[in-house]
Amino acid sequence: MNKKRKIVIASLLKPVDDPRMYEKIALSMSQTNKYDINIIGFASKNIPHHPDIRFHPIFSFKRLSIRRVLSPLKYWQKILQLKPELIIVNTHDLLIVSCVYKTLFGSKIVYDVQENYMANIIWSSNLPKPLRTLLAFTVRLKEHLVKRMIIHFLVAERCYMNECSFISNTSTILENKARRKDMLLKRQNVDRPAGKDHEEPLKLIYSGTIAESYGIFDCLHLTDNLISSGKNLHLTIIGYCPRRDTLEKLVLQIKNKPYITLIGGHHPVPHQEILRELQKADFALISYRLNPSNKNCMPTRVWECLAYKVPMLMKQDHPWVPLLHKYKAGIALDFSHPQISALPDLPDNTFYPQAVPDSFYWEWEAKKLLKSMESLF
Length: 377
Known about the structure:
- The protein is α/β, with parallel strands linked by helices.
- The chain has 12 helices and 13 strands.
- A 7-stranded parallel sheet has the order 3-2-1-4-5-6-7, sandwiched between helices. A 6-stranded parallel sheet has the order 10-9-8-11-12-13, sandwiched between helices.
- Helix 1 (19-30) packs across helix 12 (362-374).
- The longest helix has 18 residues, at 129-146.
- It starts with a strand and ends with a helix.
C-alpha cells in the first residue's frame, strides 16, 4: 500500500472546522484515501472526528493583539512537528513562514486565495485610510514576493483572476458552492390549513458573518419596516460577529424586539447548525453593501440558498438579481423602502420551479480540486 501524502491546510483566521478548509477541501481529498490531512486554525466549539483528518487548533487571539503578531511562530513550530509534503495556505499571514519552510525542507506550497485581501483592507472601515492603504499594499507586495514559490493557486472567486495580479497561470477556480451531502433537512412545501396563514410568522434568516458591510443593519431596517406594516414575521440572525462594536450595536438595536433572535454573535457557530437554520427559513436575506471589493464576487450564502432551494429576499441593486430571476429563486427589494405588497405571507410553489444545474454544487468543484492536487505529485 502506498504511503499517504502528508498535507497541511492552514489558516490564521478560521476555525479548524471552517466550511472551506474542512467540509469542502479536506473531506473531498480524504475520499481518495491518498492523503494524511492536517488542519491548522482556531479552536472550534465542536471539533469533528475523522479517521483521515487531524485538527490542530493552535491559534487563539483577539483581532488586534500581540498574540496575533506572534501566531506565525506557533504555526512554524507546528509544521516543523508535522513535516508536511504539501501546505495549502488559506491566509496571507502564513505565506512567508510557509515559504521559509519550503526553502529549508522542500515542501510544496499551494495558496488558496479566498479573498482579495488588498481590496478588502482598502474598502474596510477598521483603520484610518492612510494606514489601510499602507497595509493593503504591504499585503499585495508580500503576495508578489512569494508567488514564484507557490506551485499552484486555488481561487475562490472568478473575478480574482483579473483583480489579483500575482495569480499565475497554474491555478484552479474553486468557488464556494454548497455540498449536496449537507442537505440535512428536506424542504417541503406544506399546505397550511385555511385561516392559519397569519398565525404562523414568516421565517426570515440572516446567516453567516455578521458585519455592517454584509448588510446586517439593513436587514434590521427591513424587518422593522415589515413589522410596522403589519407583517407577521420572525428574523433569525445566526453567525459570528468579528467586531465587538458591531455586536454591541446589534444587541442594542434588537433589545426588546421579540421578533428577532440572535444565535452566536460573540462566538463562531458550527456551519451545520447554520445550514439547519437556513433550511427552516421561508426567506433568506441577502443584503450586502456593495463596494469594489465584493461587487464581482458570488457570496457563499447565495450558493447555499440556490442549492437548498431557500427563497431569497435580495437587494435590488445586487449583481446576482438576474440569477434570482432566472431560477425564480426569490424577490428583489429596496431594503430601505420595501414594497410590502411584493412579499407574500408565505412562500409558495412559484419559487424554484426547476432544479438548479449540477454545476451549482461543490461536487462539481471537488473534481477540479482532486485533479489539481493529483498533478502536484
